[in-house]
Amino acid sequence: MAFITANWNPLGEAFYRKTELYEMCWTLRDGLRDSLVAAAPYGGPIALLREPLRRSPSSRPQLEIYSASGVGIASFPWKSGPVVQLGWTVSDELLCIQEDGSVLIYDLFGSFKRHFSMGQEVVQTQVLEAKVFHSPYGTGVAIVTGSSRFTLATNIDDLKLRRLPEVPGLQGKPSCWVVLTQDRQTKVLLSNGLDLYIVDNTSCTAVVPPGLSPQAGSVVHMSVSFSYKYLALFTDSGHLWTGTSNLFTCLSVCLPVCLCIYQPLYLSLCLTRCRRPKSQQPSVVLMWDRLLLVAGVCNDTIQFPLEDPCVLIGELDGVRIISSTNQELLQEVPLVCQDIFKIASMAPGALLLEAHREYEKLSQKADEYLREIKEQSMLGEAVKQCVEAAGHEYDTNTQKSLMRAASFGKCFLTDFSPDQFVSTCRELRVLNSVRESSVGLPLTHAQLVYRQFYPLAIEICRYLKIPDYQGVSRVLKHWASCKVQQKDLSDEAIARAVCVKVGDSPGVSYSDIAARAYECGRTELAIKLLDFEARSGEQVPLLLKMKRSQLALCKAVESGDTDLVYTVVSYLKNEMNRGDFFMTLRNQPVALSLYRQFCKLQEQETLKDLYNQDDDHQELANYYVTASYKEKRLESRLSLLQSAVDEYNKAKNEFAAKATEDEMRLLRFQRKLDDEKGAGLLGLYWWLKLKSLAEKEEWEELEKFSKSKKSPIGYLAFVEVCMKCNNKYEAKKYVSKVTPEQKVKAHLAVSDLEGAADAAIERRNEAEMGAVLSRCSASDRLVIDRLNRARAGAAKK
User: What are the Vps16 C-terminal domain coordinates in residue numbering (predicted)?
Assistant: First the structure.
């Protein structure tokens, strides 16, 4: 086991190792010099732009995209403006930030997707430096301009630019700066001479890191950890400060060593997650031209010589080191691996691994090792250690040794659950497949899908037994979305291929695939794909977006969903002129019928236009009859009825025409009676209805009737009729509506002596006061006194 620890390097109580991930497949003539390099996290792709500030139109820089193993994915000449920075989003989209503040976005395969600007003022002042960062809101971009102002966009998918306050005394760009995300806030930490500032949305605040003395000099390099929890500062005097990113806690201050008399080219924090609590302490990786140095929270360091220029990429559990020839991962050795492989280790896992080695040699020492583990009752723990350690190892032979040792130990356990062992076996087979140089991909199946290794992604999903809607269906959806972009195939061929491959897979929406086809300018293909969509509610919105409104209306009618039909009809009404709109509805009787029902309730005038458009004389006549009942003036009413008679005649409905003419004669006769009898006829109707409703005790209807229009018989009648039916409660409702001349009578009718007295006194009517007094008894002394005083006062005047 000594060979496994050969590349381990101690740093305090921990060990660090460099593991070679790939011998790079690319051929870079000039290495990584004079190039902008950006690598996506989690072992993602690498973008490289040579001589990014070259401005000669005859010799343009080349933008190249590679897999993590250096396999070429895309390459094209850069024809836009000078590039200041490259970066990757969380979904592996490449951001190219230009001097003029434009940010161009490309997909993994070099296809342009979209662009946005960091502000109009940046065009004049130019971008001096830029950084791409990841926050809780998504991928963000930060820039510093020639006017020494910072501008942030915390989420490029929901672009909201924030211009930060000015920094006192800052001329040009700062010595160094980083973006921090704390408590869901994004801030900038920068160095300007001997001063450090934190700039947020509203203020610029000077800060002093605890434990860093003024004699340490100016901060010339700074770096934040992958999780944005820790921060490292390097000064021009060679001091290295490490602490929390909120600058509240200092973890260590390393004193200058001879290596630090020159400023490093790169500074990166390395933090490995494992079980030992002290492993949560960060280490700092510094890189010079020919040297890589790892400094811990103590003054211990590890030095690695470098042969070629390199780029450091921070990861969740280490730092990737990319050179022109190979790629390595520098990380702390996981605790479980240290326990097993450390020389002279007596950990249960180490003993079990040794027992299995002796067993393979047919040596009786295997039994001795097993017996020692069993005596400590640690055989279950030994198996778990071997399984866990196998997951941390990159070498397949080491993985096999550990898993075989775990399988060997498992044979001597009766109640050991095999779930962890089985799942680790599956995961290792997947990991080893995607780590192949020809693939060079991250670990999750989602990232596999995005890189268009569809067969491999599907096999992984099935092998890991991921539910179809989370696994295979997602792969097929992504495959179909890419398939519709193939320009060398006809619409018919692509639609057929998608149908055959996708079929009825759960969770795959043909409307989503069709939407992608439409975005690519293939409208006919989108329509063909929508034919496979079973849900009309998904078909119709996209058809409307594609301006295929008549087809959308057909689909909505076929669905039988009235709400969907109304949605389409409403859209058509707003988009078309009235004539075309009506002609479209004539071809869809169901839609026309539904729209007529809507118009009857909401748009009466539109209903008339519809009947006119269709020459539907019968319905038009009915419309005029209905409209006549809403008219209060007799002349208007008769005019509408005459129009109805004309339309009935055109519809050859003699009975309806004759009945309408009779109605007109009756209205004229009623007017004549009203003129001769005054309000008598109408009053008679009100009396009859009032008595009828009261006798039936339909009090709610009676109240509605009283409010329908002004009563021609007044409201005292309502009071008297209600009292006659012994309902004082209802009678009181109408007392307030009675005219002042009848107020006293109304109050007396409901036995309200005080109210009657108030009304009589207010009117100063001697007769009414007397009428109230005649109804008072001896117990109504207060009312009698009030009335007598009022009568006396009226007599004096």
Answer: 508-684, 685-781
